[in-house]
Please model this.
Amino acid sequence: MTLAEMQFQTPELRLASAEIFMLVMACLILMLDLFVKDRKRTVTFVATQLTLVGAAVVTFATTSGDIGYTFSNMYVGDLLGDVLKLLLYLTVIVVLFYSRGYILERPQMARGEYYALTLFATLGMMVMISANHFLTVYLGLELLSLSLYAMVAMNRDSVPATEAAMKYFVLGALASGLLLYGMSMIYGATGTLEITAVAERLYMGQVDRGILVFGLVFLVSGIAFKLGVVPFHMWIPDVYHGAPTAVTLFIATAPKLAAFAIVVRMLVNGLIVMAPDWQMMLILLSVLSMAIGNIAAIAQTNLKRMLAYSAISHMGFMLLGMVTGVANGDARFALNAYSSSMFYVVTYVLTSAGTFGMILLLARGGLESDELEDLKGLNKRSPWFAAMMMMMMFSMAGIPFFVGFFAKFSVLQAVVAAGYLWLALVAVFFSLIGCFYYLRVVKIMYFDQPTNSLPIIAPLDMKILMSANGLAVALLGIFPQALMSICAFALLRSL
Amino acid sequence: MTDCRRPTASGKDRYNRASGALLDDPDNAFLDEACVNSSLLLAAIPATAFATFSLPLLVQRCGRAAATLAAATVMATCLALLLPLAPAAFAGHSEVARLAWLPGYGLDLSLRLDGLGLLFCLLILGIGLLVVLYAFYYLPTSDRLGRFYSILLLFMAAMLGIVLSENLLLLLIFWELTSVSSFLLVAYRSDKYESRIGARMALAVTGGGGLALFAGIVLLGHIAGSFELTVILAAGEQIRAHALYAPALILILIGAFTKSAQFPFHFWLPSAMAAPTPVSAYLHSATMVKAGVFLLARLYPALGSSDLWFWMVGGSGAMTLVYAAATALFRNDIKGLLAYSTISHLGLITLLFGLDTPLSVVAGIFHIINHAIFKASLFMAAGVIDHECGTRDMRRVNGMFRVMPITATLAIIAAGSMAGVPLLNGFLSKEMFFAETISYPQFEPLGWALPLFATIAGMLAVAYSSRFIHDVFFNGEPIDLPRQPHEPPRWMRAPIELLVLLCLLVGIFPGWTVGPLLAAAAGATLQAPLPDFHLALWHGFNKPLLMSTLALAGGVLIYALRRPLFAWQAHLPPLHPRTAFERFYRALAAGARRTLAVLDNGSLQRYSALLVSFIVLLGGWAFVSGPSADVRLPGQPADEAAVGALLVLLLGALGATALYRERLLAVILVSVVGLVVTLIFIRLSAPDLALTQLAVEMGTIILLLLVLYYLPPRSAPRSSARRLSRDLLLALLAGGGLGLVTLQMLASPFETMSGFYLQQSLPGGGGANVVNVILVDFRGFDTLGEITVLAMVGLAAHALLDRLVLLAPQHDADGRPWAAEAHPLFLSMLMRPLLPLSLTVSVYLFLRGHNVPGGGFVAGLITSVALVMQYLANGIAFAQPRMPRHAVRLLALGLFLAAGIGLTSWLFGRPFLTSAHGHVQLPLIGDLELASAMVFDLGVYVVVVTVVLTVLAGLGSLSLRARSQIEEV
Model:
């Protein structure tokens, strides 16, 4: 290498313009907030929402549909990234609307940092989504994780929240270490960390396979931790339960999209040649997650904790799509399989947002309303919201005419097409167990006597949003084709 | 997007042979024209049902009658839409309408109406109308009925969906919808415990069966290549020959058996009888439980005709038939008796399908019709009795014939049909069943067994029917009834009257009444020419008649012997699959809790242990499965000094771990580790690293000692030996594994970039010390980032420590007071002259840094250590006023220097942080090479000094402040 080769080149900034915009705006909002005197931080809130909308506009305007690399190939702009980012903005916007009332009732949380951290976390996820380099993935991941640790501990006086943050931090640091270690192994085996270059070298066979398998183990472990699948799931119940519900809502939704993205980037884009190895690991993780997630959820009395285990099982189910892309060296089904996973994640995020949104809606006067008991007789207090919640539960359980059914269906169909019949049966069996606790929620809402008969008061925007969310779950259940096509098309143009 | 299907070739044949001509010749031109219209009509049936199911809820404010009328109107509309399509279905056509939905997954909104679908539609809508009328009288007047009818209509819509689906996935969706809506119907009286339990169990069993069915259908679609019935029904041979036939069949049968309450999934049905009686009459006799047998009929051409089919379907059906009939006899609750009799009759139908001959299938279809008619009327009659008496216990409800003679007569006729008494419809299908058992070909050596079995089942049916008739309507006086019974309202009885009339009509004139419908349905089921059969009351004296006679006589005899039988039954151990279900349910919950106790105990240590164990497992797997790892040790021989140093390092690390409870000792041992590392760096010719490490080590130890001060004097309780050994094992495995992997990595050949830096350092960066040139020049941007982070840490420490007040303890762990003399005179006097010396060293290191070991970072560390020593020796009171005060400003200055010099390169048209260098002759010092990077290094220096001072002095001053406060108190 000569000095001339080290010359600094101006990167193509257009591809990363949304990230740049987000970074600048997040810093500006952090500073702007110093001058906001209003206790409700309305200015900060509005600016944050506008930033997200602005980022959506930027992303939309710069979408070309082609694959482009920038920052010395560390960064990729493609349709998959753009679609996921647009969904991400939408999710974060919805999350912020849902959380607004909740955090206003908690002085510790109603601060500008909450919004700035949300934006930084979003930026981290955007970087993860568009990474074409293992270190870029790591960078985004850490930006996300660090923001999340702080957000979990945002309500400093709450003992469960700080404990949860502590656990999350310690385990998260361990997992980040694993991921980084795995990356270093991959570097050792292939001599590069650029995802597309890794794929190329693997394809050419110029690698040390022994080290690569080790690297893969650590890489998959790190990813598994971020996805929250068994046995790397321990943080999920504690964090979901302990964190303020607004933060739980955030953790339970948007990062799943980014986690899916890094699975695609690292395992599919980079290590597809190693698919037989990582598919085997993912099968193990997936089956364990579905088993433990669903069984443990039954024993829960706290709604957030139950949903945490449900999240574990859902992520396990989502992984099923990822393990069936390559069967016996044949990648014919890959697109179908991965797009089914993507559809699963997107619909899960949609449903999860509504479910946690409902917990936020029920929380009042600074008190949580996250025990299953709190849902007793919801139908008598508000038939409309009970119906919305019922739709969410039905969708999560995978009952037909709700979008969750098609998500499960498309993944299962990919599993069967790849010839993993036993896996499909296992998945169906555990989904059946899963139905049990979702339907218990429905039963509690409809058949139990309410313990408090206060009517539910919610701001209009929340009511509208919650209804829209519920209806989306129902409507997408009747017309899932459009979203499915978007997922498939985005992947088709990006793989 | 509609698609019309021509009549199948055999359609006309079938119809002609079966029932005589209705349509002379299918006029193709007429069909083409009518095709679009009929597709629309077909789609309109479920569409109407789904669109209007909430109508009763909307109009219930206008009164109960309005809700009832709305429900009836919806059903009648559907029926009206169906009628124009009926002639084609009678003629053996399969009308198919299709709308693309999810073409990628083979899921279309496609509907199909053929004879079988028509039969079920008629049952669903016809009996539905009667139930609507009946429920109006049955349910209490306080109930506004809107909710009831809406759920009922939703259920009806889902049922219509099942029987009209052309696509199996669509069928499955409707199937699950019936489970859910029936859950709501069974739990309609949600205040009753039995309702909730019954509803939950029904949902769990049928919902679970639905999922099995889902898996089965996915498999079937995979085998046949399509989910469309037209394709699947035509691919019977291919499906049966496929390797996945058995799992697909078993899964689908689980779905069908759970829905139709076949053994061993029958237990939910009696529990679901907690539902209001109209619901039982509708769901549990005529429609929902028939969905399972409908599925058997529907898929018969694809799945039937195999040994597995015979044994599974026939076996389960036979088992259910006899077991449920015997159980029915012992039930004291009228609805319980009817529930088990329903299960038994469903078993009979299932057995008929299992016998797997065309005629047995016809008989099965026929019995579906007959059973729906007589059982619905019986349930309604039972409801009337319940409604009038307030109880359904047959030990108390006696002698009703005198109280309500008309209802009693109707119920007796219906029960006669259930028992298979001649002149009634039940007799006809039962005769066909008997005939089939006799002529069944495949069972040669045991040819007598099946007829015997059938006769016993017949006897039991007669016995429980007799018990129903005799106990309820005769058998002395009623005992202790909650209400005074009398005849029900005129219109409440009307549905029963109509159904019983049908029983008689079908029983006496079968060919005229159900002949065409049966032929069309059976033809559609078989998808092949119909066998010869004659619907007639009288077939002459033959074996089936003999069996019927035997069954009648035997049944009456069994009933006559009921007292000893009941006494015997009371001694049997209670065996209820229902309790087994409950036990399973509890075991599942207990298992979940136990799993949780292990995995989710809230302990971070447990979590990390699990995480690390799994990593070790995965790593071990990778080690075993990967290509043989051949670890080549590096070629250099180990020298004594290095080995000795490593041993000290190891001992230090081990000591620190073992003595972690003795914190002071542990800190000292940690510093040993740090020093050995420094020595190793020197040994490996890395003086820069060694210098930095040494300076960092000192700062760290001071920091640790300061922090120790704030820790509680007593550490956490000692872990158990088991836990310690677990952790030790995990640590050994994980650490050993990582070490091995690292060794393997290091042993493999690699290229480094060092050559580039070594070559370019002097010409490109103007410095001979490559490390420093990398830091301030080549990777100056990184360093700028790093010092920015460092500055932020300093800021954060400043913000955290500035106002924090912690009270320091007065005594140490052993109760000894802290030394009164904080700053020994000797120490402070010794330290003061050291300061200028240290500062000189740091300036020296700073200036020479570009060419020989040194640089801004090390210089900064040495300066800060020197300053901190003044704090330590002389105390805050002495040192604080002599130190620069504005930490924040200093940090800004450092960053400004570093970034500013970078920016100036822009003035010269060079990229950010380009370095310039040249030589200056200074008096005394001589030739000095100066690089612009030095200013950058100065920035690094300032930031490092400020941060270290802020942190250490902040922590130190706090302790003093706290102590002085205590002293003041």
Q: What stands out?
A: Chain B touches chain A through 70 residues (CB under 8 Å).
